[in-house]
Specification:
Length: about 325
């Protein structure tokens, strides 16, 4: 029987799952991911994690709790850097350490460091799984080279999460909204209270940062005076600036995590650029205390304002 690798459905799962699944299958393991986030997973995460952590990190703890008795290994890489001279949030870097210190009776954690080498490649990082699994470094690197293209299939795979509803109401002009934020805030339907369906059911066309090419993201994020060395910040800024300048969007909803230092800076940088260009923007902050009724009220008010604006006038303050 094949040994199993658990992949928690949280944090950068939404950026790398097709690649990670293909890699472990290529080297002969079965991959089991935790289910979509639900109330039990949230409760387990809150119980296991330190209070000060942001909601995505708490939810990640819940996914690990779910998997820990069901698999032989859990894959929780220390993701340091995805591009040269750029870094991930310290909580992403420190995730395997947080988990090992917060949760007892874990199976072996595969906590390889993922970091670009001098040539900007990742194969050496994946070669490190040989330390945990029955495979040599050279074989692991060979396997990684075979499946590496899967990292380019992520946007396609995310279509499984995006709503399928065709835009039904064709009589009014379609409203295009950029749903901005970390991938785990945008694509975890439990965490964001089903915002993808809520928008889609109101005939809103949803655009996400993943719809903008890496080349464009880099070009537009370079327009701020100071270099953005947080990869995920660069992605939010670059995609928003590009879509604002191209006049491709009617509004922006920024999903932020309560207590996230990065979001507190990004939301202002994006807001200033949006307001300058007369694009309405709203920030919705997520944490375990966020009530759905209040969330829905703010969302509906914003969408109604956008619909009136589109239909009747063009002079409503775009300010949050
Ligand atoms: S970037 Fe923000 S939301 Fe993401 S892990 Fe770090 S603190 Fe949490």
């Amino acid at each position: 029987m094949k040994k199993t690798i658990g992949i928690p459905r949280g944090m950068l799962y939404y950026e790398f799952f097709p690649l990670w699944e293909a890699f472990f299958m290529e080297i002969g393991y079965e991959v089991i991911s935790s289910p979509k986030t639900n109330k039990d997973i949230l409760d387990m995460g809150i119980e296991a994690c330190v209070d000060e952590a942001c909601l995505p990190v708490k939810i990640f703890h819940g996914h690990v709790e779910y998997l820990k008795d069901k698999v032989d290994y859990i894959f929780i890489p220390k993701i340091t850097s995805l591009y040269k001279r750029e870094y991930c949030c310290p909580k992403i870097l420190g995730l395997p350490y947080m988990i090992k210190n917060s949760i007892d009776d874990l199976p072996e954690i595969i906590d390889i460091e993922i970091n670009t080498d001098r040539k900007g490649k990742f194969e050496g990082s994946y070669g490190k799984v040989g330390k945990y699994l029955n495979i040599s470094r050279r074989e692991a690197i060979r396997a990684y080279r075979k499946i590496e293209d899967n990292k380019d299939k992520n946007r396609e795979w995310l279509n499984n999460i995006m709503p399928k509803n065709p835009l039904r109401n064709k009589t009014e002009r379609i409203i295009n909204i950029l749903l901005l934020g970390h991938s785990y805030n945008v694509f975890d339907e439990f965490m964001n209270m089903g915002i993808l369906d809520k928008l889609s059911n109101r005939d809103i066309r949803i655009i996400v940062a993943e719809d903008v090419s890496e080349e464009d993201i880099r070009m537009y994020s370079d327009k701020i005076p100071k270099r953005m060395f947080w990869t995920h910040g660069r992605r939010s800024i670059g995609s928003a600036f590009k879509l604002i300048e191209d006049e491709k969007i009617d509004g922006i909803i920024y999903l932020s995590s309560f207590g996230c230092g990065l979001d507190s800076v990004l939301v202002h940088l994006v807001s200033y650029r949006a307001v300058e260009n007369n694009i309405p923007i709203m920030e919705l902050t997520l944490d375990e205390q966020t009530g759905e009724a209040g969330f829905n009220t703010r969302l509906e008010a914003f969408l109604d304002m956008m619909k009136w604006r589109n239909r009747n006038e063009d002079n409503i303050s775009p300010s949050r």
